[in-house]
Amino acid sequence: MNVGDLVTLSSRGKKLEICWRWLDKWMAGKLVGLVLRVDEPRYNYDHEKKYTVKWIGDGPKGRQRYHGPHWHRSDLKFVAKAKK
Question: Where are the domains of the chain?
Fold first, then answer.
């Protein structure tokens, strides 16, 4: 998954506590976002890349409330590749 790709929440992502509000929108196929940035892990205990997603319309801010607006790869599902 790269910058510019379209994504939606995966089945694991929709089970996150922060995403309960957008479950109906996700089920209708209307929750789609654009990957803006991909960050490498900063620390030794951090094992996953962090994806910053801008949702089209209204969507969840991030995986956790207090740790920034990012998602893990397992929370997202690929929709369409960016055109180059």
Answer: 6-80
